[in-house]
Design goal:
The chain is an alpha/beta fold. Helices cover 39% and strands 24% of the residues.
Length: 262
């Protein structure tokens, strides 16, 4: 059974349809790359998966459980939405770290907020805090940030900030890690360090969805690739199928333009 099933998702902003009948599935431990030109709907799709946007139609299932069904008009509480978001870890293109917190505090924050809702929090506050801190230190060490844990975002390079953001996304043990163009805000020399981390996560069979303009990276790391244009999935397949045996003319045109600009 796929870990993620997206069924017939539609999303419009006013009269503008941004996503049109989007359907795909993702197996556990696999990496899916989503490519396409700016404005093709890639980021909106990720935001719908993470419940930052509400689709107008369709269903989203994780581990066979329906997390969203547009046909179900019953209201959902903020607590229910927060619970659904826990299935997805989100890494934004512009880091979105809290400037008033250190790297370590940024990674710990969501876990601490959730811990306070536990009935045993008051009795076990110290032990819970130590456990959360230990996990955050482990994640930041995995990102090669051992010496930067007490630095604030403005004291970190863009690549270091993005690695903190990846650690933060992993902190709540999400089923699926989502990257929205994770290198687009970085200088070229810093891009490599972030891609190296994502490659390592792929080697560990982390389930991932990666929106990217790095075609060589998508070819090397992804198990499956979707090409989006005009809010629809135009072509999909393995990297070999999509990059080397392209079938659709729109895909061919996109890859040709990208090749000319690279």
């Amino acid at each position: 059974m796929p870990i993620l099933e997206v069924q017939n998702i539609n999303k419009s902003f006013g009269a503008t349809k941004v996503l049109d009948d989007i359907s795909f599935s993702l197996e556990r431990g696999k990496a899916l790359a989503i490519i396409g030109s700016s404005g093709s709907g890639k980021t909106t799709l990720l935001r719908c998966l993470n419940f930052l946007e509400t689709p107008n139609a369709g269903r989203i299932l994780v581990n066979g459980e329906t997390l969203f069904d547009a046909a179900d008009r019953s209201s959902k509480s903020d607590a229910e939405i927060r619970k659904r978001r826990l299935h997805f870890g989100m890494v934004f293109q512009s880091f979105n770290l809290f400037p008033q917190y250190t790297a370590l505090e940024n990674v710990m924050l969501a876990s601490l907020l959730l811990a306070k809702e536990r009935p045993d929090y008051k009795q076990n506050k110290h032990a819970i805090h130590e456990e959360i801190e230990g996990h955050a230190i482990e994640l930041l060490s995995q990102m090669s940030l051992e010496g930067r844990m007490n630095h604030y975002p403005h004291q970190l390079s863009g690549g270091q900030q993005q690695r903190v953001a990846i650690a933060r996304a992993l902190a709540l043990h999400p089923d699926i890690l989502c990257f929205d163009e994770p290198t687009s805000a970085l200088d070229p020399e810093l891009t490599g360090e972030v891609l190296k981390v994502i490659r390592s996560l792929a080697d560990q069979h982390t389930t991932m969805i990666i929106v990217t303009h790095e075609m060589a990276f998508a070819r090397d790391v992804a198990d499956y690739v979707l090409f989006m244009d005009g809010g629809v999935i135009v072509e999909e397949g393995t990297p070999t199928e999509l990059f080397e045996n392209t079938q659709n003319e729109r895909t061919k045109a996109f890859l040709s333009r990208f090749s000319q600009n690279s």
